[in-house]
Amino acid sequence: MANFPGEKYTEHTDDSQNKHPAQGVFQDKIGDGEKVVAEVIKAGEAALREAKFRKTGLIIATCFIFLLSIALFLKIRQIDKKKSS
């Protein structure tokens, strides 16, 4: 704490004199806000996990469909060769 010229330095050991009456209300609101932020972070992380799971499922399904389309293409070629011979 800065001392101005001619001002005596006094050390306050009791912080209750320096607190504003509304400071407790602010602390309560800050606590409520921190709880909300924690819930939002938790929900966001859950959403990211779900998105990753869905992305993995989409990749697997796409690969499976691609393999089925290749198998179908090869089967059609095999049938066409039998008909032409």
Automatic annotation (TrEMBL):
The chain crosses the membrane at residues 58-76. The keyword Transmembrane applies. Residues 1-27 are annotated as: Disordered. Residues 8-18 have a biased composition (Basic and acidic residues). Keywords: Membrane, Transmembrane, Transmembrane helix. This is Uncharacterized protein.
